[in-house]
Write a structure and sequence with these properties.
357 residues, mainly alpha, 13 helices, 3 strands, elongated
């Protein structure tokens, strides 16, 4: 028996008649002589189709073009059943998966504590040798994470202030309690929304950039080069970023809170008729100054956490692009989660501070 194949053996050409072609090829026997010399085009789909018709072994008599032989050889290299099958649920596998996740969390925690310890040692070293303080790196980082973030922080803060004031005024009008819009905006923005909003923005903007920067340095082996030169990676790479965020975050919180209050005051003026001058005059009386201190302290603490998380994931990047993208995503998600948990801890610890009874 002799079979001659000709024409275009690609997915686009064979797709409509694939069942008929398979039935025709299935009639071949091991002694069939195959002639593929007239095949004009052959892609991976056609090669796999022919290879399976051969029973996944080369026939005794076959003639084909050299380039088509290479395509079929590549198709033959694909193992049968290469597509993974979905495993059935198993309690043992579930426990093993939970254990792997727990071990991964412990590994991250240990490396995070090690990073904290190294940072503490670097601070002691700089106290003993203040001339080695990386002032240039810190000032450059403050400009990147602080000054460049001011426009977007102001825009988001202003809009949040307007929306919060507008929605609150709708409810306060119902009870004739228009004046309490100042309490709501002052306490909510200065104490809570300002620090949390800035932290989310900085984690997504600067935290991801820090992780990506350190990750690229890992991929290109620049960090290994620093170690070979005897330069402390934590002192030159981690410490400036931590100091920069601890300095820039309180200032960003102050800036964003001020712009958000401005937006809220303008919205209250339009909706409730409360003059901005009266708003600014009443704000210090109804919102104790302790709330501002709490907000600035939150900003500093959140900046420390964001920088540490970003550097932690950046230094753990493996030398491949997939690890870089995964670590950057994990850095942002982890930083935002930790900031929210820390904010909850602050709320519990300072529940009796700055609140007018």
């Amino acid at each position: 028996m002799r079979l001659e194949l000709a024409g275009d053996w690609s997915l686009n050409s064979l797709g409509r008649d694939i069942d008929q072609i398979r039935r025709t090829l299935a009639q071949a026997s091991p002694s069939t002589e195959w002639n593929l010399s007239a095949v004009a085009r052959l892609d991976s789909f056609g090669a796999i189709l022919i290879w399976r018709a051969w029973g996944e072994c080369w026939p005794a008599n076959v003639s084909l073009q050299p380039e088509h032989r290479r395509i079929i050889e590549r198709a033959a290299a694909i193992p049968a059943g290469a597509l993974p099958k979905t495993a059935a649920f198993s309690p043992r596998a579930a426990v093993a998966s939970l254990g792997d996740a727990l071990l991964g969390f412990v590994d991250h925690a240990l490396h995070f504590v090690a990073l904290l310890g190294q940072l503490f040692l670097d601070c002691i070293h700089l106290l003993r040798h203040p001339r080695q303080f990386p002032l240039a790196e810190v000032s450059a980082s403050v400009y990147k994470v602080g000054v460049k973030a001011m426009p977007v922080a102001a825009m988001v803060g202003f809009l949040i202030g307007v929306v919060l004031s507008y929605l609150s005024s709708l409810q306060l009008k119902t009870f004739g309690a228009d004046i309490f819009i100042i309490n709501i905006l002052g306490l909510g923005i200065i104490r809570e929304l300002g620090p949390v909003l800035v932290s989310v923005l900085v984690a997504g903007r600067s935290g991801s950039a820090m992780t990506a920067q350190l990750g690229v340095m890992r991929v290109t082996e620049e960090i290994d080069a620093l170690a070979a030169l005897g330069v402390s990676r934590s002192q030159r790479l981690v410490l400036p970023k931590v100091f920069a965020l601890m300095l820039a975050m309180p200032l960003l919180v102050l800036w964003t809170s001020a712009v958000a209050l401005l937006g809220g005051a303008l919205s209250a003026w339009v909706e409730l008729g409360i003059a901005p001058s009266f708003f600014l005059e009443t704000l210090p009386r109804v919102v104790p100054i302790a709330n501002l201190y709490i907000g600035l302290l939150k900003g500093m603490a959140f900046g420390l956490l964001i920088a540490l998380v970003a550097c932690h994931f950046g230094l753990r990047v493996q030398p491949n692009t997939e690890s870089l993208s995964a670590s950057t995503t994990a850095s942002v998600v982890s930083a935002i989660t930790i900031v929210i948990l820390a904010d909850a801890a602050f709320a519990i610890a300072t529940r009796t501070v700055g609140v007018v009874a």
